[in-house]
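Worked example (supplementary).
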Amino acid sequence: MENLIRFFQRFSALMLFIVLEVIAIALMVNYNNYHLSVFMNSSNVVTGGLYHATSGVTEYFGLYGKNEKLSVENTRLKNENQNLRKQLAALSSQVPKAAKADTVVPVEEQYHYIPAKVINNSVNHYQNYLTLNKGLRDGVRPDMGVVSADGVVGIVMQASDRYCVVLSMLNPNSRISCRLEKCRNFGSLVWNGLDPRKGDLIEIPRHAEVQAGEKVITSGFSSIFPEGIAVGTVKDFDLKPSDNFYDIEIELATDFRKLTYVNIISYDHRAEMVSLEQQVEK
Amino acid sequence: MGHSVLKYGIQFVVLVLLQVFLFGNFHYLGFISPFVYLIFLLNLPVGMSRHLMLVLAFLLGLTIDIFSNTWGIHAFACVLVTFLRGYWIDGLFHIDYAGASPSVRVFGLINYCKYAIGIIFLHHTCLFLLEAFSLQNFWIVLLRILCNTVLTFVLVLCYEFIRR
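After joint prediction of all chains, the assembly is encoded as:
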């Protein structure tokens, strides 16, 4: 008995060391455990609140550029709006009045946007995440897409009452289904782990006609992003004689180092679509 | 005693805030960002209770983890370097520094550099390997470890000279 006590005294520091390391490993392994995540990530009240407070200060530094960007976007939207109005007027004058009610398909509100502010963002890690100031009470749910004015940003991973954590596109766990705009071939966008401005488009088959400078947009094959949101442009590509797929380097549309305002995309019929897909898979 | 608890307590909080809100946002070339919170672990007095030291290291790492969504990676690296710190000091110097806080003044410049680079390199190696969790991008990970070790070390030295 005495020996046992002496043994514990002698190796107590080693044991404490092992216990602490095991706890740390347990945390790493359980990173997707919801109950732990409630207090273990930056969407919790304390850290979320702190990030919120500091972003209130740092926000002012980039205000000039952001204003300019907003006004450019505003103008673009105004122009688009005007063009659409003109087209609508032209079209509706062509359609005979009686036919209107039957043939015109009612416009269905499928997607709507929840505006949010980025309160924490990283681009310099191997796995990057963002924290936004909108959460469950604003209608944010896991698996919703996040876009900026320039293009795709990421996918909501977890949401607390007021905040949510977004899996950034700059993360090896992120995979976004997209397609080349002109040749319409589908592939996935992944990140190479180093440069926050570049990504790789994989799974584009050999027979596709890829061109440098071609736009890459979302495919719309999931309930996360609607079709046609900008992802980036083809910067460089390569096709080895032995490969069936291209290696394509993409310049990302979103500048992750300057993100402030983003939109979370909520798809109204998502529950219906997911449950239908699950039924088929069973 | 009460004095040093207060001193290290303040250092803990200040370093966490600096790390999370200032240096965490610092990124040169997209992937270089220093981990200045290591100053806390580097400066804990030699001969302090190892249990207390390990618990402090764990808490420090966990706090950084919570802020940066890294799930125990920092906690693991901090506890590891703290556990090995005592052996590292003994092995390097063969002198009993009990009670002194490691600094350029106590160790001398060259010895302090050896001590700090060893700890920082071990911490960063552990951190970036755990973060990547594969050897797929081994050269990128190695580049990250080396660049960040140099940068963190430079900042630690700056702190040492300011403090003198």
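Two points are worth noting when inspecting this output. Chain A touches chain B at residues 12-13, 16-17, 20-21, 23-28, 30-31, 39-42, 44, 47, 50, 54, 58, 122-127, 129, 165, 193-197, 257 (CB under 8 Å). Confidence is low (pLDDT under 50) at residues 104-108 of chain A.
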